[in-house]
Amino acid sequence: MGAAKDLVRLLILVEVVVAIAGPGAAALSMDYYAMTCPFAEYIVRNVVSEAVMGDPTLAAGLLRLHFHDCFVQGCDASVLLDSTAGNTAEKDAPANKSLRGFEVIDKIKQMLEAQCPGVVSCADVLAFAARDAVLFAGGPYYGVPTGRRDGSRSVFSDTFTALPAPFLNASSLISLFATHGFNVQDMVALSGGHTLGVAHCAAFKTRLTTETATLDSGLGSSLAAACKSGGDSATATFDRTSTAFDGVYFKELQQRRGLLSSDQTLFESPETKQLVNMFAMNPGYFFFAFQQGMLKMGQIDLKEGDHGEVRKSCRVVNSGRW
Ligand code: HEM
Ligand SMILES: *[C@@H]1O[C@H](CO)[C@@H](O)[C@H](O)[C@H]1NC(C)=O
Ligand SMILES: *[C@@H]1O[C@H](CO)[C@@H](O)[C@H](O)[C@H]1NC(C)=O
Prior knowledge:
Layout: H1 2-21, H2 40-54, H3 58-71, H4 102-115, H5 122-136, H6 158-162, H7 170-178, H8 184-191, E1 198-200, H9 201-210, H10 217-230, E2 235-237, H11 248-254, H12 261-268, H13 270-281, H14 283-297
Antiparallel strand pairs: 1-2
This protein binds protoporphyrin IX containing FE and 2-acetamido-2-deoxy-beta-D-glucopyranose (NAG) (2 copies).
């Protein structure tokens, strides 16, 4: 009788764990490196701190790297792998346009390998580094559960369907994000990652001529001038405070100063407009929703124990080939 009860209890427990983690998902934990690499988090923070003090725009690069990692093949550092003779990697896909921060990750990894070789995965390094980048830019601090494993697949064409295109409308963004379990609030808050950084004219020039009704005319003409003189590789910041993690991105959407179509659509579409207004009015609420979104994003399609490794170099798989 007692044994039967225990079994029932165990089954319920298993069910609850599976419900939280999803079937076959690897579970992360908050003190994963406590015994094996207790200073891992400090090492990451120090290198990120130094890097963004030298170049504040790198915070944007580090945040975007984590996003591009997680949306393609899950958070497994696939975005960090270099192309090889027989394979074009994710980072060399057109959507990589201007991915930045690889050298910062290399430096962190090098220091971690000196301290505790073969212990801290590159996917976890990315998750920590993105969090710290946000923190140093004035954004929220949130705990990052760890224990991710690095994957071995990185194929440029995987990015075509996995990453959102800058011309998507709100409904398409909602559907794409929903495939990873994000709700509408998560999607709008995560889009707020564009409070940092820049985009190239190639990504927004179409909006300049086709969306004049939802584009501030002063901004429109200055962007058009910049793109005319600099071509596709000219850049513009997403908001006026591009190295500060704040609510200004959402305020600018209200002023029709969104840079990408996928930014402005959030204010123009009834499904997302109220969230934009709420985040613009209350940056604290944006910070809260952003943390929730990042926590979810950091757990997309994690590799299970046997299906991953801890890379020695973030740029190559341990076997040296694939
Ligand atoms: C909602 C769908 C999204 C779309 C369509 C999108 C698209 C883009 C595009 C086109 C760029 C500019 C690339 C270039 O021209 O160089 C960019 C930059 C950036 N994205 Fe997104 N993105 C999205 C979501 C996100 C999310 C969820 C995050 C992070 C939480 C993020 C973080 C960034 C950052 C920080 C930059 C600036 C990078 C830099 O300055 O180096 N984006 N995004
Ligand atoms: C991104 O891909 C392009 C090709 O589309 C390539 O020329 C460039 O070097 C890549 N950038 C990075 C940072 O790997
Ligand atoms: C959004 O884009 C999709 C795909 O292009 C299209 O089918 C849909 O009608 C668009 N929705 C709105 C509200 O414009």
